[in-house]
Amino acid sequence: MNPTTWFMEATYLVASILFVLALKGMSHPDTARRGMFLAEAGMFAAIVGTLIGTHIVTWTWIIAGLAIGSIIGAWMAIWVPMTAMPQRPALSHAFGALAAALVGIGEFVVRGTQMGGVTRGALGFEIMLGALTTTGSLIAASKLQGIIEGKPIQFRGQNIVNFTIFLAMVACFAAFWIHPSAHIAFYSMLGIAFVFGIMLVIPIGSADMPVVMSLLNSYAGLASAATGFVLGNNVLIIAGTLDGFSGLILSILMCKAMNRSITNVLFGGFGAVIAEASSNAGGVMREISLDDAAMQLAFATRVVFVPGYGLATAQAQHAVRELAELLESRGVSVKYAIHPVAGRMPGHMNVLLAEANVPYSELCEMDQINPEFPTTDVAVVIGANDVVNPDARDNPKSLIAGMPILEVDRAKSVIVLKRGQGRGFSGLENPLFFKPRTTMLYGDAKSSLTHLAQAVQHV
Ligand code: NAP
């Protein structure tokens, strides 16, 4: 092995180790930032190794690409608001997948007929996954940004049409594999894969997009792994496989936390029709005044804040932290209960609360906090609904039966902050709001929390 190849393989090994350590770091909020730095260092090592170890025909395109990519990346990191976070990774997946597809096309043009059967197979996967992920991710980003309608777009016989498109794509792949000189088969496979990506994502509602995006992330990773096989590049194989399977595991975990199957998310059109499922809700909701709520909080020993999607829409993360600090200064013990699918994307609540500098040590996962609710004086639900719906635990006929919940109804007192009688993502009524120990504080979450803090100061 010559020294440059040796250097390249050594940097690839270092990069791969850094990627594994990065994933481990990102599995906990305390170490997530370190995980990101390790991933960046790994990516830097892989780029340096590739630039030094491979034969570069001309540096012009490489430097131009580096400059343009760095400017766009920095612009996105600095200017994209936190509320647009769900759609930003969708764009990254689209670009990553397009890059994989373009490399695949380049390889086909340069050495299509000289490839062996295995490499040709990998090239086919790279093209199919790369192309369908590109258009699928662009549709996902457009839905989340509101550029196209977020509702599921469905028509009669949609699944049959999609299956037919899928079969056509696979048939073109088989034809290309058998006859590598058949340009028509290769480019038809590419074109159909672009169309398939669109068809796959339009029937899915924007609320289900986070699951779809982590699946698309997985496809983009697998497309990169296939690129690695085509180019004989080890770091692409390792990084693509890590990316592919972590995306898949995340999709499965999110579906579990929502008690839905992946097939239901992909083909169910959730959100198209709100099912009139049975609910244990009934009675009247009792309203609480700001002063009474402030009194309860000020004289409590233990308070747990339970943030949900409403915290994100109200951008109330700073207001909740300020109220929490005020309570802590009075000797109240404060914790935050985090449900894995609260909000609309994985880690949504963690990201918002981290932005407001809430200490990680106060964030508690569901299994950790649920046993503590019976000894909690006040549970403050901030714009959360489905993730605290006791029907999921108590009513086997509920649409969300079996979904694990934060058991706030077991707290001594529950104060719910929401604007009105609006339902959550599932569209179901929530019996928690009618329970004798629950009271409602109506209004936008940010303004309610700010006013609560002012009222607590006067207690
Ligand atoms: P949710 O069930 O969607 O409920 C949000 C509640 O917030 C609504 O009832 C709404 O009531 C209230 N709200 C909205 N804006 C508000 C504001 N400005 N101020 C105060 N309240 C406001 O939210 P969740 O409990 O967080 O549950 C998340 C749901 O999304 C789950 O069903 C989950 O399965 C689903 N989901 C999550 C993910 C993920 O990755 N996190 C992905 C896909 C789906 P009002 O209108 O009355 O104010």
* Structural class category: alpha/beta
Tell me the total number of β-strands: 6
- What best-fitting shape do the alpha-carbon axes yield? elongated
The string of secondary-structure elements, in order, is: HHHHHHHHHHHEHHEHEHEHEEH
Alpha carbon gap, first and last residue? 76 Å
Oligomer: single chain
Write the layout of secondary structure elements.
Layout: H1 3-25, H2 29-53, H3 59-79, H4 87-111, H5 117-145, H6 158-178, H7 183-201, H8 209-231, H9 234-258, H10 262-267, H11 290-298, E1 302-307, H12 309-314, H13 317-329, E2 333-338, H14 348-355, E3 363-365, H15 366-369, E4 378-382, H16 391-394, E5 413-418, E6 438-442, H17 445-457
Parallel strand pairs: 1-2, 1-4, 2-3, 4-5, 5-6
Helix pairs in contact: 1-2, 1-9, 4-5, 4-8, 5-6, 5-7, 5-8, 6-7, 8-9, 11-17, 13-17
List keywords for this structure.
Rossmann fold; single chain; 7% strand; six-stranded parallel sheet
What does this structure look like?
The chain is 60% helix and 7% strand. With 459 residues, the chain is α/β, with parallel strands linked by helices. It has a 6-stranded parallel sheet with strand order 3-2-1-4-5-6. Helix 1 (3-25) packs parallel to helix 9, helix 4 (87-111) packs parallel to helix 8 and helix 5 (117-145) packs antiparallel against helix 8. The N and C termini lie far apart (76 Å). Bound molecules: NADP nicotinamide-adenine-dinucleotide phosphate.
